[in-house]
Amino acid sequence: MSPPSKHQDTSLHTFNVHTDAVSALHLVRGDTLYSGSYDCSVAQIDLQQGAAAHTFNGSGSMVHCVHESEGQVYIGNDDGEIVVLDPASGKAAGILRGHKRAVVTLCTEENFLYSGSKDAVIRQWDMRTRKCLKKMRVHAGPVTCVHMLDGTMYSGSWDGSLYSLGDGEGRRQTDPKTTSPVLAVAPAAGLLYAAYRDGRARVWAPNVEKVVTTFVAHDSGIPAIVVDDQARMYLGSEDRTISVWDLKMQASFVDAEKRVCTYKGHTDGVTCLANGETLLYSGSYDHCIKIWDLKAVDRTLVPGLEERSLPLHKLSEGR
Questions:
Q1: pLDDT, tens digit, for every residue of 131-165?
Q2: pLDDT tens across 23-39, in order?
Q3: Residue 285 region by backbone torsions, left for phi larger than 0, else alpha for psi between -120 and 50, else beta
Q4: Checking phi first, is residue 244 left (phi over 0); if not, alpha (psi -120 to 50) or beta?
Q5: Beta-bridge partner residues of 244
Q6: What is the pLDDT, as a whole number, of residue 16?
Q7: Best CA proximity match to 42, nearest among 16, 78, 66
């Protein structure tokens, strides 16, 4: 395929497995993709076969987030519940209740599940006993994202604040230059990357508690952010595009002209991203899931690099 352009759908493949907005994606072992939707379903997509293997319709209400851990799939829904799905049977194995409003974000570390909700509360659950161990109210507004990395919890909120909790010490941070809601976070390499509703991504240095770089990335909100081990950042925006950025640049302010490339193809806003070794997966309000070739970024940065498309049965491998 050619590097992303302004006029064509540059995705490798499109899955149409939902009848409403795709709200969540979670990649497992590089060969299975779970997707959640406002149509109240969760799909299990076999990337080796290039098709949905199973569809679970028992979430009870709109699905906002999906996370797999230790063979169990956790589904956050609009009713404030976390449905535990057993993929083998395709049936619910339990329901975690406690949140008063929609559960919009889930993550795990070790034996613990963390959930964030529009009720402004983050809960820590024991995945073995399915009991709530801790209830944290660290934001003044709805929680939009929670991420765990190396024992530290990072969260963002509609109130524009970020929070980090590690080694028993919590820090709340806000950018005095904006009141824009935080929509997504991605901690990496000692920094915290945060995507905002004002179309900007801000890089925080937690130790000094300040923004070190601002990316003027999009004209609309950025609900999804991924940072990979190649020092690249991918931003999924409500403007229907995914922008790619080289994080090796040293600057306090980076404008849109400095982006590496832009993936275009969705016909409505991008809601979620998941990345594999050489592939990127995106979900959208247009009901579709698209797969993108990350080697297109390499070909943009290194002209003349071999170009080749991938057969459908190689979508999970990316090579």
A1: 999 999 999 999 999 999 999 999 999 999 999 99
A2: 999 999 889 999 999 99
A3: alpha
A4: beta
A5: 234, 261
A6: 95
A7: 66
How buried is 163 (Cβ within 10 angstroms: 0-12 exposed, 13-18 middle, 19+ buried)? buried
For the chain, the residue count is: 319
Q: Is the pLDDT of residue 190 over 50?
A: yes
Q: Rounded mean pLDDT of 164-185? A: 92
pLDDT band at 311 (very low <50, low <70, confident <90, very high): very low
* Chain-centre distance for alpha carbon 63: 14
100 band by pLDDT with thresholds 50, 70 and 90: very high
DSSP per residue, the chain:
-PPP-SSS---SEEE---SS-EEEEEEETTTEEEEEETTS-EEEEETTTTEEEEEE--SSS-EEEEEEETTEEEEEETTS-EEEEETTTTEEEEEE---SS-EEEEEEETTEEEEEETTS-EEEEETTTTEEEEEE---SS-EEEEEEETTEEEEEETTSEEEEEETTEEEEEE-TT--PPEEEEEEETTEEEEEETTSEEEEEETTTTEEEEEEE--SS---EEEE-TTSEEEEE-TTSEEEEEETT---SEE-GGG-SEEEE--SS-EEEEEE-SSEEEEEETTS-EEEEETHHHHHHHSTT-------GGGTTT--
Q: Which of 126, 120, 127 is nearest to 104 (CA)?
A: 120
What is the rounded CA–CA span in Å between residue 300 and residue 296? 6
Say how far residue 285 (Cα) sits from the centre of its chain.
14
Structure tokens at 205: 């240095």
